[in-house]
Amino acid sequence: MLELENVFVRTSDTEIINDLSMKIEKGKVYAIMGPNGAGKSTLAKALSGHPLYEVLGKILFDGEDLTSMEGEERAKKGLFVSFQYPIEIAGLSFIDFLHAAYQGVHKEIEKGEFRKWVEKIAVEMEVNPLFLDRGLNESCSGGEKKKNEILQMKILDPKCVILDETDSGLDIDALKVVASGVNSFKRGDKSIILITHYQRLLDYIEPDVIFVMKGGKIVKTGDKTLAMELEEMGYSQCF
Amino acid sequence: MLLTLLEQPSSQSFLSDLQMKAKKKALSKTISLKGISLEHFEGISSEGFSFSVEGEGVELLSLDQALQKYGLFLKNRFEKMLVKEEGFFSLFNRGCSDQVFCLFVHHSTPLIKIAQYYINSKKFFSPRIQIFVGKGVKTTFFHTMEVQGKDNCINSCIDIALEREAQVSFFETGTIDHDNDLFLDTKVTVKQGGCFTHTTGTLGSRSFKSEISAYLLEKGAKSYLEGFWNGSKDADISFIAHTSHLAYETTSREHYQGVCHDKARASFEGQIYVDKVAQKTDSYQLSKHLLIGEKASGFSKPNLEVFADDVKASHGATVSMIDEEALFYLMSRGISKQGAIDLVKRAFLAFFLNEIGETEIYKSFLRLIDQ
Q1: Which of B3, B24, B30, B240 would be B211's cystine partner, CB 3.0–4.6 Å?
Q2: Which one, of B27, B31, B26, lies nearest residue B238 by Cα?
Q3: Rounded to an integer, what is the distance from CA A225 to the centroid of its chain?
């Protein structure tokens, strides 16, 4: 589904991702782990088309080259990135934002009908429907923002999701809710990529493949036992 | 240019004939008056102008009728307020106005609609509205202006008197063809325990100026002044807000923010004056400009004059370009770049909408924002 071929990512003065290649298949869950500064979040932002990053190499999605596409087009193709620090926009209600996003990705839908559907999913995810009228992520705790991201994911129903440190800022109960949301998303035609520092998220969402990043490269690939190994030994002793 | 012409000796004499004080300092420094010339106008006129008021129990009188019925009261009001008129456009209105409408609101009523329609070209209109709100009256005014035609100049003044404990929300908006100029001047006095909220919004005509002066005369009086603009093309927009705290324990807010696109220019000049007797004043002033496009510009001139020593008085001002991270986030969810800009702009302009609730006024402002 998603294929990276010799990808380099840099800002105006720093190279962050250095010749990275990986293949993401349909129906599988991947985890990308690594120490701080390994380039994990940069990879997520670069995949979503952040204009700050210059990308060399090829990003293929269902065989189509996404490398020079805007974020909007990538989203329409079915790529969704849940960001580590979702932005706040006061004055733009969550429901208006989500309605515009849904209509951008899918089709026109009457707002009242859309709202009813979103409210139902929000309740399932233990998101208070009153949040739908609040400004986008405005005055939300870290955990609430992450739940909002997963709610967006469920509504927009992309093919491939990249969840950047979705577990950070979550208490145990919220972590279970978010994990349950992600697990309910697992299907044969979907791919999930979890970016995390810790094993704990992987206790709730079991990965098929783990990539370990360091210095902007994939330095190790393994199955879920690799995460336990990293948890025990730490990144510095593993490499 | 109108301004230049009016500063010439012959115009000074004209102003003098009208018993207007042509104080140089009072001439607007914040609006360029570009494109306005006396030769645009074929004269001061009321032709093509209509005025209507809807509202239960509202008494609408002409000036003559009002003088007959409330003569002493009106004369007293005029004597007090006319000396406060220093702004160029209010002085000009005073000199030129041939149409004065007097509204008396004696009892609480949910909504009073005031509508001004102008359909003409190359005319100068100068109506004046006097509003009197009785003791303890609670009401909401919705003032709309529609200007059709080209090269008209509207110089409209409103003077509002709130008696004790009166609670008034005043919403003001307009549909104005771009090639017209609109100058609004509003004055309000608030007595003990009264509360006045004023919200005005504009898309920006060629030249738009709104000047409001609120006088908090007695203990516990409050005023909340807010405005927004959504200017495009070469619109020249100016908001001026003065609040005078003249008594103990008075409260005020001035909050103005808006967006400029293309070559539009907006300015905000705010003044909060706290008299030495106005101890325990609580006041705050905020102005925010959002600029979309490299040629748009925004200016803010906050100004606090505080002569009491036990007050809260502060201000904030920002001028910013659109947040690229916000655009990126919205686009990453499948929203087009223009769609994302529109959403960010709308979010910025809608700062006051939540407090209105989904009413006719809300919808009208929303249409203005979305245009």
Answers
A1: B240
A2: B31
A3: 22
What is the reported pLDDT for B360?
Answer: 83
A172 backbone dihedrals φ, ψ, rounded to 5°: -60, -45
Residue numbers in A near B334 (CB within 8 A): 72, 75-76, 101, 104-105, 156
ipTM of the complex: 0.95
Chain A interface mutation, best of B257, B318, B329, B349, highest count of A Cβ atoms under 10 Å: B329
Does residue B368 contact residue B349 with C-beta atoms inside 8 Å?
Answer: no
Which residues from B are below 8 Å from A71, CB to CB? 328, 331-332
CB-CB neighbors (< 8 A) of A90 in chain B: 347, 351
Partners of B348 on chain A (C-beta within 8 Å) are 91
Query: CA–CA separation, B357 vs B49, rounded Å?
Result: 32
Find the range with the poorest average confidence among A94-108, B26-40, B180-194, B195-209.
Answer: B26-40
Compute the distance between CA of residue B202 and CA of residue B184 in angstroms, rounded to an integer. Answer: 11
Tell me whether B326 touches chain A (CB under 8 Å): yes
Q: Minimal Cα–Cα distance from A234 to chain B, Å? A: 33
**Can you give the three-state secondary structure of A13-46, one letter per residue?**
CCEEEEEEEEEECCCCEEEEECCCCCCHHHHHHH
Nearest CA in chain B to A158: B333
Where are the domains positioned within chain A? 2-238
Cβ of residue B307 closer than 8 Å to a chain A Cβ: no
B167 pairs with which residues across the strands? B138, B195
Question: Among all residues of chain B, which has the CA nearest to that of A77?
Answer: B334
Phi, psi for residue B74 in degrees, rounded to 5 = -65, -45
- Asked whether the beta carbons of A18 and A185 are under 8 A apart, the reply is no
Q: Which residues of B touch A75 (CB under 8 A)?
A: 331-334
Three-state SS at A69: coil
Please tell me the predicted confidence (pLDDT) of residue B14: 44
Give, in order, the Cα–Cα distances in Å from B348 to each of A91, B168, B322, B333: 6, 25, 10, 20
For residues B228 and B255, the answer to whether their CB atoms sit within 8 Å is no
B21-69 pLDDT per residue, tens: 444 433 344 444 555 555 555 666 677 788 899 998 899 999 889 999 9
Q: Which of A87, A100, A156 minimises the CB distance to B326?
A: A87
Per the CB < 8 Å rule, is A87 touching B335?
no
What pTM was estimated for this model as a whole?
Answer: 0.82
Which class does domain A2-238 fall in? alpha beta
What is the per-residue pLDDT across B292-344, written as a single tens digit (0 to 9) for each? 988 999 999 999 999 999 999 999 999 999 999 999 999 999 999 999 999 99
Q: Find the helix or strand (DSSP H, E) in which A60 lies.
A: strand A54-61
Domain spans in chain B, listed from the N-terminal domain onward: 2-321, 323-371
